[in-house]
Amino acid sequence: MKVMLVDDSKTMRNIQKGILTQLGYTDLEEACDGLDALSKVGAFQPELLLVDWNMPNMDGLTFVKKYREQGHKVPIIMVTTEAEKSRVVEAIKAGVNNYVVKPFTPDLLGERIKETLARVAA
Amino acid sequence: MDQSYIIPFIKSVQNVFETMLQLPVQIGQPEIKHPGEYGHDVSAIIGMSGDVEGSVVLSFPTATATRVVSIFTGTELDPGHEDFADAVGELVNMVSGGAKAQFSGKDVSISCPSVVIGQSHQVYGRKDVVAICIPCESDCGEFGVEVSVRQDAGTPAATA
User: Which of A70, A101, B6, B57 has the highest CB neighbour number within 10 Å of its CB?
Assistant: First the structure.
């Protein structure tokens, strides 16, 4: 499975890479903001995206809206410090399939990934 | 400054360090920071805007920051390495995000973090907002969270 990690923090991308690799997902692509992600999704064709919210150049919410406008149905998990209910609702309305609040444990992120993929497969 | 804005930062810094680094944090007595009072070696700074505005500074002595970053990244990094600043910036991002989520009924945005590295530097916030320093102690050493925020004019007081 091809997974794209969209986060301006390399540290956070590395943590997510470690968790995904342990889960058996090794075909990974990284993007440092929404603009970077938009420029890479065409060539990489991800099957799952983990997207941060607060990023320079283009934030995660704007990226999700633009990505969905292009007709992509690929599952997206937002992984962010934005924990308010209003933010979660906003993200779901924009087309996010699941939501993980930072800080998170490896187990939690792993569970959300499995849960999201299971929902999409159902 | 409204004292009710301090507790969310205490809870958040403990949660972030415990969850991401498995590092328990003991909190000392928060106190007003006077300009020029403390010098820092590593400071991660984030701005808040909206119903609550101001800044948050996560500050470390070099030795503490080096140990914390080592646990967080799983790699020994020199403070001069760009990934070192990235790691410290992500910590203040999580601490600030976790705190603002506890500002009940407030619509608050946070900026992307900035990081300053340099021996015994000073960080000056807005002159018209009192800064509170929350002293923290961990197995990696001492560090601090400086909170300098106020509610936007016309916004009801915090209920966190």
Answer: B57
CATH topology of domain B3-151: Chemotaxis protein chec (3.40.1550)
From the list A54, A55, A83, which residue is nearest B98 (CB)? A83
Measure Cα distances from B74 to B15, B41, B69, B90 in Å.
Answer: 19, 21, 8, 15
Measured between CB atoms, which of A12, A18, A103 is closest to B15?
A: A103
Tell me which residues of chain A, numbers 51 to 80, contact chain B at a CB-CB cutoff of 8 Å.
Answer: 54-56, 80
Instruction: Find the helix packing angle between A85-94 and A60-69, rounded to 10°.
Output: 20
**Closest chain A residue to B22 measured between Cα atoms?**
A105
- Domain map (residue ranges) of chain B: 3-151
What average pLDDT is seen over chain B? 92
Does the model's pTM come out above 0.90? yes
Task: Write out the two tokens for A5.
Answer: 């990690």
Kindly report, residue by residue over A23-66, the tens digit of the pLDDT. Answer: 999 999 999 999 999 999 999 999 999 999 999 999 999 999 99
Instruction: Give A77→chain B minimum CA distance, Å.
Output: 17
